[in-house]
Write a structure and sequence with these properties.
The complex is a heterodimer of chains A (225) and B (385). Chain A is mostly helical. Helix content of chain A is 52%, strand content 7%. Chain A has one domain: Ribosomal Protein S7 (Orthogonal Bundle). Chain A has a two-stranded antiparallel ribbon. With 385 residues, chain B is an alpha+beta fold. Chain B has three domains: 119 residues, no CATH class; 97 residues, no CATH class; 112 residues, 2-Layer Sandwich (Ribosomal Protein S5, domain 2), CATH 3.30.230.10. In chain B, helix 7 packs parallel to helix 9 and helix 12 runs parallel beside helix 13. Helix content of chain B is 45%, strand content 10%. Classes of the chains: A mainly alpha (225), B alpha+beta (385). At the A-B interface, helix 1, helix 2 and helix 4 of A face helix 7, helix 9, helix 12, helix 13 and helix 14 of B.
Chain lengths: 225, 385
């Protein structure tokens, strides 16, 4: 009973109507596939696999596969680079970026004098992409809220998914911004390496946003009042 | 007062019979005719009179329909030149009808059919009130007694569970997590099914009430105690026959076993895939190797099921595809390979393939352009003036 009282006092509003996505070809009870072997192993270990034993599962999409070379972040990044549906070109740009990163890092590796220095150099470009994205992810952003005819920039926390989206988008934007003579892979390699090193323009952009949130903290209560 | 009138009612033999009948089938079709003679003598309410007339009409109608159905079966037997006895079987009737009157209509309900009248004409509710006009059910005046009885029962169960939970907390006992209801494999019956079950028309809003109340019931930690009640309104999510029905491989003249999967579809691509075992990892697509596909992504798609089941160098693949573009063709072949591989791998690997979604056909198609819009979703540039 106590549980119920808590439930009803805290969230005493009518449960929202669940609207099915009209456009989806799959029925709403279909769940996303688990096509990575290690993810499946983890599910089996935790015993959660029994929960989906009788649930229909969607087919994996065209850019999904279980190969060791497949990475979720990379395929997402390819989608952000893509323009006008030219996925093959986007993939080419991404792999070219990785090649450049690899060359730069190997050069550094060979130039390094001591063993300790060598150990600190990350040679895997995919790891560098992950590091860069983690370093660039914002935790706060500002949304305009209108109060008494004045627009206030109100700081709000953002979800994990949207923070990843913003990080990727900033990285791609920064790589596109420069003079039109440098190609995207070239610029992007530098941006990623910079961001992985926790420096560079994109990290600065994150700090700027955080600073703006900090400056507007007085308006934070407009989020709920 | 009440007792007196009921006693008086019960003294009349016709009435007693009628009350028995009405109580005995609350929901369902009235199948036998009712003697209307006493209407002249008794003071029966207008509603009851109307109902009895309607019931009699319905009964007569059903009777003629039943007769016609019987004669129809005999005619069918004559036309097919067979013994009428075998047309007691509904399957045989359907077979004969589809033979005599072949139809290419898409909707199955639009095709000619011959079924027992009880299946064609919807069930009707029997009288919900007695001949003085008094309702049997306490929720009669909601006009949907069965539906509101369902909600009532659900809340009753919920209150019972709350009481039980309180008792348990007093005894400082907690729920055994192993006993929790496992409902991931089923879902609530949809509105149409619920309507059939309750013999009442239900509005979408009311269906939502039903789902909300029932969801609250299953969220209760002790909901396993009312499993029987919950199970009446759940239906299983998946038909497993497709997955369990794994074909046996054929043997070709070289002694290799093989499986051919026809009708591999994805987008506009159509094809068939042959998987040979044992093999050495050769892949032939329309007479070419994997380089048939220009793009890496399509090649990866072909290899996806092979890598996943670790059969890359143990089978040979032969595929013919036409129509569509590279990604559609690759998707069609991927599905064909995955379906073919089922015959050559263990049962648990097949299950893992299902979790990976490899056995699910991708039915998504290009979304159509809409009038008044630039494309499927994009709108024309809009200017106020």
């Amino acid at each position: 009973m106590l549980r119920n009282i808590l439930q009803f006092t805290k969230f005493s509003r009518a449960s929202p109507t669940i609207l099915a996505n009209n456009y989806s070809q799959y029925e709403p009870h279909f769940i996303n596939p688990v096509f990575k072997k290690d993810e499946q192993e983890a599910l089996i270990k935790s015993g959660e696999i029994s929960k989906i034993a009788f649930v229909p599962i969607k087919a994996p999409r065209n850019n999904d596969n279980s190969s060791v070379f497949h990475d979720h972040r990379v395929s997402k990044m390819v989608n952000y680079i893509m323009q006008g549906g030219k996925k093959e070109l986007a993939r080419k740009l991404m792999s070219e970026t990785f090649e450049r990163i690899k060359r730069i890092q190997i050069e550094r590796y060979h130039k390094a004098q001591t063993e300790e220095e060598k150990e600190n150099i990350v040679l895997n470009p995919v790891t560098i992409l992950h590091m860069a994205i983690e370093n660039v992810r914002p935790i706060l952003m500002v949304t305009p809220v209108r109060r008494g005819g004045v627009k206030y920039q109100v700081p709000v926390p953002i979800s994990e998914q949207s923070s990843y989206y913003r990080a990727c988008k900033w990285l791609v934007e920064a790589s596109r911004e420069h003079d039109r003579k440098t190609h995207l892979p070239e610029k992007m390699a530098f941006e990623l390496l910079d961001a992985a090193n926790n420096s560079g323009r994109v990290v600065k952009r994150k700090h700027d946003l955080h600073r703006l949130c900090e400056a507007n903290r007085a308006y934070a209560h407009y989020r709920w009042s | 007062m009440l007792l007196k009138s009921t006693l008086k009612l019960l003294n009349n033999p016709v009435n007693r019979l009628l009350i028995n009948r009405i109580n005995s089938f609350n929901y369902g079709t009235v199948t036998s005719s009712i003697n209307l003679d006493f209407l002249k003598r008794d003071k029966t309410s207008k509603a009851m009179k109307a109902y009895l007339e309607r019931a009699q009409q319905h009964d007569e109608f059903m009777k003629t329909q039943n007769e016609e159905f019987k004669i129809g079966k005999r005619h069918l037997a004559n036309m097919m030149g067979e013994d009428p006895v075998i047309y007691e079987d509904q399957e045989k009737i359907d077979e004969a009808i589809s033979y005599l009157m072949p139809s290419a209509l898409y909707d199955k309900r639009a095709r000619p059919m011959m079924k027992p009248p009880e299946k064609i004409f919807p069930e009707r509710k029997a009288a919900e009130f007695d001949e003085t006009g008094r309702a049997h059910h306490f929720l009669f005046y909601t006009s949907k007694p069965n539906f509101f009885q369902l909600l009532y029962d659900a809340v009753e169960h919920l209150n019972g569970l709350n009481k039980f939970e309180d008792n348990m907390t007093r005894q400082q006992k907690s729920v055994d997590p192993a006993l929790r209801l496992e409902l991931s494999g089923s879902e609530w019956i949809n509105q149409d099914q619920l309507e059939l079950k309750l013999v009442e028309n239900i509005q979408p809003v009311e269906y939502r009430y039903f789902v909300n109340v029932m969801n609250r019931l299953i969220e209760h930690p002790y909901s396993f105690r009312v499993k029987d009640f919950i199970d009446i309104y759940r239906r299983p999510l998946m038909n497993q026959t497709i997955i369990l029905d794994i074909p046996k491989p054929h043997i070709d003249k070289d002694g290799k076993s093989f499986i051919t999967v026809y009708e591999c579809l994805r987008k506009k691509a159509r094809g068939d895939v042959t998987v040979r075992f044992p093999g050495s990892g050769k892949i032939l697509i329309n007479g070419q190797d994997v380089t048939y596909f220009e793009y890496d992504q399509s090649r990866e798609q072909i290899l996806f099921p092979l890598i996943f089941t670790e059969m890359l160098d143990k089978v040979d693949i032969e595929a013919n595809v036409e129509g569509g573009g590279p990604s559609g063709q690759a998707g069609a072949i991927r599905w064909g390979i995955a379906m073919g591989l089922r015959s050559f791998v263990d049962a648990d690997v097949v299950e893992k393939m299902r979790y990976a979604g490899l056995l699910q056909r991708d039915y998504r198609r290009r979304e159509r352009k809409k009038p008044g819009q630039e494309g499927a979703r994009r709108k024309f540039t809009w200017k106020k003036r």
